Amino acid sequence: MEKAHEDSEKLREIVLPMEKEIEELKAKLLRAEELIQEIQRRPRHAPSLHGSTELLPLSRDPSPPLEPLEELSGDGGPAAEAFAHNCDDSASISSFSLGGGVGSSSSLPQSRQGLSPEQEETASLVSTGTLVPEGIYLPPPGYQLVPDTQWEQLQTEGRQLQKDLESVSRERDELQEGLRRSNEDCAKQMQVLLAQVQNSEQLLRTLQGTVSQAQERVQLQMAELVTTHKCLHHEVKRLNEENQGLRAEQLPSSAPQGPQQEQGEEESLPSSVPELQQLLCRTRQEARARLQAQEHGAERLRIEIVTLREALEEETAARASLEGQLRVQREETEVLEASLCSLRTEMERVQQEQSKAQLPDLLSEQRAKVLRLQAELETSEQVQRDFVRLSQALQVRLERIRQAETLEQVRSIMDEAPLTDVRDIKDT
């Protein structure tokens, strides 16, 4: 039980760090999914106002498309407020159509035919003053003007980012599937190893119980054999003593009996030949009976001695057999303990290999994926910041046009280089 408890503790110590690593990987995957969802939730390109023919473009190019700016409320600051303030005047400015402007400009030569030079100059200035606001298109709140080339470039970048996002999603799914499969394989291997350890422990407990029972039986049989051996030893000793006593009694009894018989014979010697023959026959019968009794007693003693020796040999053989069985059981127990130790060592080696080979690779892959996602997120944030800077630059230019006091200032502002790259924007 103590070994099983120690094994379970070791397994728990090995499995807990693996579970923590898996939880960390899952958390990182969740963060990556949140980043991907955040990128997906970002507004796509708004429908372009490029097709409108009633608005005069800011430059010579066609009117650029519009893009929603959700970041202006948090990052625009005073520029955003100024842009919103300018948007209030966009209704009056947008009332001037391109057709009207063209018509007025085409009708100027006809109306100037009957005017003096001073009146013509004044009319020219007035027409110029009315045409300049028509050429300024103020987008609705939350949108910014973008050139066509930059619009196409942004659309290409958006499609590329969408493809990258889909590839990252596929890689994330593949990574999750590989992680799930590796977790299942690890769990299956752990279950197999635990089942083997439990079977080995159960077999070891069974063998230990069998060995203990065999030891108890051997001890009981050894005690019985010792008791029987002692009894047999005492019995043999007693029989030997009886035999020696009988022999000692026989010799003295035969020794004094001779003189007494001689005295009796001398006293009662037969006086005739028939009496002598009868005495001789009686003496022979007594001698034969005594000899038969001695032989019978000796045979009985020999039989008892042989029986006791056979019993002693059987008990000795049984004892040797039990000792051999005990030795075999001990050897089998040692072999099983060695196999159990080898299984534990193999399980620890497999766990170490899994912890050293699989988890670091998965962690490195996850770190690489997270770093790539972070880089893509930073790129998208940089694009958003560039959009904000472009919108702020456009708002500043519109504010400068709005605050211009003369037409020359308006022309100089409009003749400036178009904003095609964020790097062209000067930090103010």
What is the straight-line distance between the termini? 78 Å
Number of domains: 2
Largest sheet: number of strands, sense, barrel closure:
2 strands, antiparallel
The overall pLDDT average reads: 70
Q: What is the ordering of alpha helices and beta strands?
A: HEHHHHHEHHH
Spatially, the strands of the biggest sheet line up as: 1-2
Detail the poorly predicted runs: 45-112, 125-135
Q: Roughly how much helix do the residues carry, as a percent range?
A: over 70%
Proportion of residues in β-strands: under 5%
| Number of extended strands | 2
What class do helices, strands and sheet pairing give? mainly alpha
Q: Any idea what the shape is?
A: rod-shaped
* Helix run count: 9
Rg estimate, integer Å: 61 Å
Provide a short characterization of the protein structure.
The protein has 9 helices and 2 strands. It has helices at residues 2-41, 72-75, 78-88, 90-94, 98-111, 117-134, 148-267, 273-403, 407-414, and strands at residues 66-68, 143-145.
Describe the 3D structure.
The protein is mainly alpha-helical and 428 residues long. It has two domains: 2-189 and 362-424, no CATH class; 204-253 and 285-356. It has nine helices and two strands. The protein has helices at residues 2-41, 72-75, 78-88, 90-94, 98-111, 117-134, 148-267, 273-403, 407-414; strands spanning 66-68, 143-145. A two-stranded antiparallel sheet has the order 1-2. The longest helix has 131 residues, at 273-403. The protein is rod-shaped and about 220 Å long. Mean pLDDT is 70; it is low at 45-112 and 125-135.
